[in-house]
Amino acid sequence: MKLAYSTLGCPGWSVEQAAQAVKDYGYDGIEWRLADGEVITPKTAPEVKARLLAATQNEGLKVACLDTSCTFVKATDEERKQTVEEAKAMIDLAAELGTPYIRVFGGKIPENCTREEILEPSGKALGEAARYGQTKGVTVLLETHDDWAASPDNLALIHAAGSEAPVQVLWDVHHPYRMGETAVETINNLLNGGVIAHVHIKDALRDPSEPLGWHLTLLEEGEVPVKEIVGLLHEAGYDGYLSLEWEKKWHPDIEEPEEALPEYATLLRQYIKEAEEAGEIAG
Protein backbone atom coordinates (compact mmCIF):
# COMPACT_ATOMS: atom_id res chain seq x y z
CA MET A 1 0.00 0.00 0.00
CA LYS A 2 1.05 3.57 -0.68
CA LEU A 3 0.43 6.83 1.17
CA ALA A 4 -1.08 10.05 -0.16
CA TYR A 5 -2.67 13.09 1.37
CA SER A 6 -5.47 15.37 0.21
CA THR A 7 -4.74 19.07 -0.13
CA LEU A 8 -7.99 19.65 1.76
CA GLY A 9 -5.67 19.46 4.75
CA CYS A 10 -3.48 22.44 3.85
CA PRO A 11 -5.69 25.42 2.90
CA GLY A 12 -2.92 27.86 3.77
CA TRP A 13 -0.40 26.38 1.35
CA SER A 14 0.30 27.19 -2.27
CA VAL A 15 0.16 24.51 -4.96
CA GLU A 16 3.94 24.35 -4.89
CA GLN A 17 4.12 24.01 -1.10
CA ALA A 18 1.57 21.20 -1.20
CA ALA A 19 3.60 19.36 -3.82
CA GLN A 20 6.84 19.74 -1.85
CA ALA A 21 5.16 18.40 1.31
CA VAL A 22 4.70 15.00 -0.32
CA LYS A 23 8.43 14.39 -0.12
CA ASP A 24 9.00 16.37 3.07
CA TYR A 25 6.53 14.29 5.07
CA GLY A 26 7.12 10.85 3.57
CA TYR A 27 4.14 10.40 1.25
CA ASP A 28 4.07 8.64 -2.12
CA GLY A 29 1.43 10.73 -3.86
CA ILE A 30 -0.90 13.69 -3.67
CA GLU A 31 -4.67 14.00 -3.92
CA TRP A 32 -5.69 17.36 -5.36
CA ARG A 33 -8.74 18.97 -3.77
CA LEU A 34 -7.54 22.53 -3.14
CA ALA A 35 -5.23 24.74 -5.17
CA ASP A 36 -3.90 27.75 -3.24
CA GLY A 37 -6.56 27.05 -0.63
CA GLU A 38 -9.50 27.08 -3.04
CA VAL A 39 -11.58 24.11 -4.18
CA ILE A 40 -10.61 22.95 -7.66
CA THR A 41 -13.55 23.18 -10.09
CA PRO A 42 -14.00 23.44 -13.85
CA LYS A 43 -13.91 27.23 -13.30
CA THR A 44 -10.45 27.16 -11.71
CA ALA A 45 -8.28 29.63 -13.62
CA PRO A 46 -6.22 28.16 -16.48
CA GLU A 47 -3.01 29.51 -14.96
CA VAL A 48 -3.75 27.68 -11.70
CA LYS A 49 -4.44 24.45 -13.57
CA ALA A 50 -1.12 24.95 -15.38
CA ARG A 51 0.64 25.29 -12.02
CA LEU A 52 -1.00 22.08 -10.80
CA LEU A 53 0.40 20.28 -13.81
CA ALA A 54 3.82 21.92 -13.48
CA ALA A 55 4.08 21.14 -9.76
CA THR A 56 3.10 17.55 -10.40
CA GLN A 57 5.67 17.14 -13.15
CA ASN A 58 8.47 19.14 -11.51
CA GLU A 59 8.30 17.10 -8.31
CA GLY A 60 7.74 13.84 -10.18
CA LEU A 61 4.55 13.31 -8.22
CA LYS A 62 1.99 10.58 -8.54
CA VAL A 63 -1.51 12.05 -8.39
CA ALA A 64 -3.57 9.53 -6.46
CA CYS A 65 -6.95 11.10 -7.22
CA LEU A 66 -8.64 14.35 -8.24
CA ASP A 67 -11.43 15.16 -5.80
CA THR A 68 -14.52 16.81 -7.21
CA SER A 69 -17.70 18.23 -5.69
CA CYS A 70 -19.89 16.48 -8.28
CA THR A 71 -23.08 15.22 -6.61
CA PHE A 72 -25.23 12.91 -8.72
CA VAL A 73 -28.36 12.42 -6.64
CA LYS A 74 -30.50 15.32 -7.82
CA ALA A 75 -34.23 15.94 -8.06
CA THR A 76 -34.41 16.87 -11.76
CA ASP A 77 -32.98 15.75 -15.09
CA GLU A 78 -31.57 19.24 -15.66
CA GLU A 79 -29.64 19.18 -12.38
CA ARG A 80 -28.27 15.73 -13.16
CA LYS A 81 -27.27 16.88 -16.65
CA GLN A 82 -25.33 19.79 -15.13
CA THR A 83 -23.54 17.39 -12.80
CA VAL A 84 -22.57 15.13 -15.69
CA GLU A 85 -21.10 18.09 -17.58
CA GLU A 86 -19.15 19.20 -14.52
CA ALA A 87 -17.85 15.66 -14.06
CA LYS A 88 -16.73 15.49 -17.68
CA ALA A 89 -14.74 18.71 -17.26
CA MET A 90 -13.08 17.33 -14.14
CA ILE A 91 -12.34 14.06 -15.93
CA ASP A 92 -10.54 16.07 -18.61
CA LEU A 93 -8.43 17.76 -15.92
CA ALA A 94 -7.72 14.42 -14.25
CA ALA A 95 -6.47 13.04 -17.55
CA GLU A 96 -4.16 16.06 -17.95
CA LEU A 97 -2.79 15.54 -14.44
CA GLY A 98 -2.21 11.86 -15.11
CA THR A 99 -4.43 10.51 -12.36
CA PRO A 100 -6.61 7.45 -13.00
CA TYR A 101 -9.42 8.56 -10.65
CA ILE A 102 -11.90 11.28 -9.83
CA ARG A 103 -13.93 11.29 -6.63
CA VAL A 104 -17.67 12.03 -6.80
CA PHE A 105 -20.53 12.02 -4.29
CA GLY A 106 -24.03 10.63 -4.19
CA GLY A 107 -25.17 13.45 -1.94
CA LYS A 108 -28.33 14.04 0.04
CA ILE A 109 -31.61 12.52 -1.10
CA PRO A 110 -33.76 15.49 -2.24
CA GLU A 111 -36.85 16.45 -0.29
CA ASN A 112 -40.04 14.72 -1.41
CA CYS A 113 -38.00 11.92 -3.03
CA THR A 114 -37.41 8.39 -1.80
CA ARG A 115 -34.16 6.49 -2.08
CA GLU A 116 -35.85 3.93 -4.33
CA GLU A 117 -37.26 6.40 -6.85
CA ILE A 118 -34.11 8.53 -7.08
CA LEU A 119 -31.78 5.56 -7.56
CA GLU A 120 -32.41 4.79 -11.24
CA PRO A 121 -32.13 8.31 -12.73
CA SER A 122 -29.16 9.21 -10.52
CA GLY A 123 -27.41 5.96 -11.38
CA LYS A 124 -28.00 6.63 -15.07
CA ALA A 125 -26.28 10.02 -14.78
CA LEU A 126 -23.41 8.49 -12.83
CA GLY A 127 -23.03 5.84 -15.51
CA GLU A 128 -22.89 8.48 -18.24
CA ALA A 129 -20.01 10.20 -16.48
CA ALA A 130 -18.24 6.87 -15.96
CA ARG A 131 -18.51 6.00 -19.65
CA TYR A 132 -16.97 9.34 -20.58
CA GLY A 133 -14.21 8.73 -18.05
CA GLN A 134 -13.46 5.39 -19.67
CA THR A 135 -12.67 7.17 -22.95
CA LYS A 136 -10.12 9.31 -21.09
CA GLY A 137 -8.56 6.56 -18.99
CA VAL A 138 -10.17 7.90 -15.81
CA THR A 139 -12.34 5.84 -13.45
CA VAL A 140 -15.13 7.46 -11.44
CA LEU A 141 -15.06 6.66 -7.72
CA LEU A 142 -18.17 7.03 -5.55
CA GLU A 143 -17.27 7.96 -1.99
CA THR A 144 -18.97 6.40 1.03
CA HIS A 145 -20.47 9.74 2.06
CA ASP A 146 -23.70 11.62 2.79
CA ASP A 147 -26.84 9.50 2.31
CA TRP A 148 -24.68 6.89 0.56
CA ALA A 149 -22.18 6.44 3.39
CA ALA A 150 -23.46 3.01 4.43
CA SER A 151 -21.78 0.43 2.22
CA PRO A 152 -25.01 -1.25 0.97
CA ASP A 153 -26.39 2.12 -0.13
CA ASN A 154 -23.12 3.08 -1.83
CA LEU A 155 -23.12 -0.18 -3.77
CA ALA A 156 -26.78 0.21 -4.75
CA LEU A 157 -26.00 3.50 -6.48
CA ILE A 158 -22.88 2.04 -8.11
CA HIS A 159 -24.89 -0.89 -9.48
CA ALA A 160 -27.56 1.51 -10.75
CA ALA A 161 -24.83 3.15 -12.86
CA GLY A 162 -24.50 -0.06 -14.89
CA SER A 163 -21.59 -2.30 -15.77
CA GLU A 164 -20.58 -0.83 -19.13
CA ALA A 165 -18.03 1.44 -17.43
CA PRO A 166 -18.00 0.28 -13.80
CA VAL A 167 -17.93 2.89 -11.07
CA GLN A 168 -15.62 1.90 -8.23
CA VAL A 169 -15.57 2.63 -4.50
CA LEU A 170 -13.75 5.30 -2.57
CA TRP A 171 -13.93 4.02 0.99
CA ASP A 172 -13.85 6.90 3.44
CA VAL A 173 -13.25 4.86 6.56
CA HIS A 174 -15.00 7.28 8.91
CA HIS A 175 -18.45 7.55 7.33
CA PRO A 176 -19.59 3.90 7.28
CA TYR A 177 -18.19 3.58 10.81
CA ARG A 178 -20.28 6.49 12.08
CA MET A 179 -23.29 4.85 10.40
CA GLY A 180 -22.79 1.89 12.75
CA GLU A 181 -20.86 -0.51 10.52
CA THR A 182 -17.84 -2.41 11.77
CA ALA A 183 -14.71 -2.38 9.63
CA VAL A 184 -15.23 -6.07 8.83
CA GLU A 185 -18.82 -5.48 7.71
CA THR A 186 -17.81 -2.57 5.50
CA ILE A 187 -14.90 -4.26 3.75
CA ASN A 188 -16.85 -7.48 3.23
CA ASN A 189 -19.78 -5.59 1.73
CA LEU A 190 -17.61 -3.46 -0.52
CA LEU A 191 -15.43 -6.31 -1.76
CA ASN A 192 -18.38 -8.61 -2.35
CA GLY A 193 -20.28 -5.98 -4.32
CA GLY A 194 -17.67 -3.76 -5.89
CA VAL A 195 -14.04 -2.73 -6.16
CA ILE A 196 -12.27 -0.61 -3.53
CA ALA A 197 -10.01 1.60 -5.62
CA HIS A 198 -9.01 4.27 -3.11
CA VAL A 199 -9.21 4.80 0.66
CA HIS A 200 -9.60 8.00 2.69
CA ILE A 201 -8.05 7.73 6.12
CA LYS A 202 -9.01 9.80 9.16
CA ASP A 203 -9.59 9.34 12.87
CA ALA A 204 -12.35 10.99 14.91
CA LEU A 205 -14.10 11.14 18.27
CA ARG A 206 -17.79 11.50 19.00
CA ASP A 207 -18.60 15.15 19.75
CA PRO A 208 -22.23 16.29 19.97
CA SER A 209 -21.20 19.91 19.39
CA GLU A 210 -20.08 19.08 15.82
CA PRO A 211 -22.57 19.07 12.89
CA LEU A 212 -22.02 15.35 12.21
CA GLY A 213 -21.47 14.55 15.87
CA TRP A 214 -17.75 13.84 15.43
CA HIS A 215 -14.48 15.75 15.83
CA LEU A 216 -11.43 14.88 13.71
CA THR A 217 -8.35 13.84 15.67
CA LEU A 218 -4.77 12.85 15.15
CA LEU A 219 -4.27 9.14 14.60
CA GLU A 220 -4.85 6.96 17.69
CA GLU A 221 -6.62 9.81 19.49
CA GLY A 222 -10.02 8.87 18.06
CA GLU A 223 -12.07 5.69 17.84
CA VAL A 224 -12.06 4.87 14.13
CA PRO A 225 -10.29 1.46 13.90
CA VAL A 226 -7.69 2.60 11.38
CA LYS A 227 -5.07 0.02 12.33
CA GLU A 228 -7.61 -2.79 11.97
CA ILE A 229 -8.70 -1.38 8.61
CA VAL A 230 -5.12 -1.33 7.30
CA GLY A 231 -4.76 -4.97 8.34
CA LEU A 232 -8.02 -5.95 6.64
CA LEU A 233 -7.03 -4.16 3.45
CA HIS A 234 -3.68 -5.95 3.43
CA GLU A 235 -5.40 -9.32 3.90
CA ALA A 236 -7.69 -8.47 0.99
CA GLY A 237 -4.73 -7.73 -1.29
CA TYR A 238 -5.41 -4.00 -1.58
CA ASP A 239 -2.36 -2.24 -2.99
CA GLY A 240 -3.73 1.24 -3.65
CA TYR A 241 -3.40 4.44 -1.67
CA LEU A 242 -4.23 5.15 1.94
CA SER A 243 -4.93 8.85 1.59
CA LEU A 244 -5.12 11.17 4.59
CA GLU A 245 -8.15 13.44 4.29
CA TRP A 246 -7.39 15.98 7.00
CA GLU A 247 -10.35 18.34 6.63
CA LYS A 248 -8.60 21.53 7.73
CA LYS A 249 -10.44 23.58 5.10
CA TRP A 250 -13.81 22.73 6.67
CA HIS A 251 -12.60 22.49 10.30
CA PRO A 252 -10.01 25.23 10.86
CA ASP A 253 -9.76 24.43 14.58
CA ILE A 254 -8.07 21.04 14.05
CA GLU A 255 -4.28 20.64 14.12
CA GLU A 256 -2.10 22.28 11.50
CA PRO A 257 -0.93 20.17 8.54
CA GLU A 258 2.67 20.51 9.73
CA GLU A 259 1.65 18.36 12.71
CA ALA A 260 -1.01 16.09 11.21
CA LEU A 261 0.73 15.05 7.98
CA PRO A 262 3.94 13.62 9.48
CA GLU A 263 2.04 12.03 12.39
CA TYR A 264 -0.34 10.15 10.10
CA ALA A 265 2.45 9.14 7.70
CA THR A 266 4.61 7.68 10.47
CA LEU A 267 1.83 5.66 12.07
CA LEU A 268 0.32 4.47 8.78
CA ARG A 269 3.70 3.15 7.64
CA GLN A 270 3.98 1.36 10.98
CA TYR A 271 0.52 -0.18 10.48
CA ILE A 272 1.42 -1.32 6.97
CA LYS A 273 4.66 -2.91 8.19
CA GLU A 274 2.87 -4.71 11.02
CA ALA A 275 0.18 -5.96 8.63
CA GLU A 276 2.83 -7.30 6.26
CA GLU A 277 4.70 -9.01 9.09
CA ALA A 278 1.49 -10.56 10.40
CA GLY A 279 0.76 -11.87 6.92
CA GLU A 280 4.19 -13.47 6.68
CA ILE A 281 3.70 -15.22 10.02
CA ALA A 282 0.25 -16.44 9.02
CA GLY A 283 1.64 -17.67 5.71
Taking strands numbered 1, 2, ... along the chain, how are they ordered across the largest sheet? 1-2-5-6-7-8-9-12
User: Which outline best applies?
Assistant: globular
Cα-atom radius of gyration: 18 Å
Separation, N- and C-terminal Cα atoms:
19 Å
Helix content: 40-55%
What are the secondary-structure elements, in order, as H or E?
EHEEEHEHEHEHEHHEEEHEH
CATH superfamily: Divalent-metal-dependent TIM barrel enzymes
Which CATH class?
Answer: Alpha Beta
Provide a count of the helices.
Answer: 9
Structure description:
- The strands form three sheets. The chain has an eight-stranded parallel beta barrel, surrounded by five helices. A two-stranded antiparallel sheet has the order 3-4.
- Helix 8 (about 225-235) crosses helix 9 (about 255-280).
- The radius of gyration is 18 Å and the shape is globular.
- The protein is built from nine helices and twelve strands.
- It has helices at about 15-25, 45-60, 75-95, 115-135, 150-160, 175-180, 185-195, 225-235, 255-280, and strands at about 1-5, 30, 35, 40, 60-70, 100-105, 140-145, 170, 195-200, 205, 215, 240-245.
- The longest helix has 26 residues, at about 255-280.
- The model has no long low-confidence stretch (mean pLDDT about 95).
- Helix 4 (about 115-135) links the parallel strand 6 and strand 7 (about 140-145).
- It has one domain: Alpha-Beta Barrel (TIM Barrel).
- By secondary structure, the protein is an alpha/beta fold.
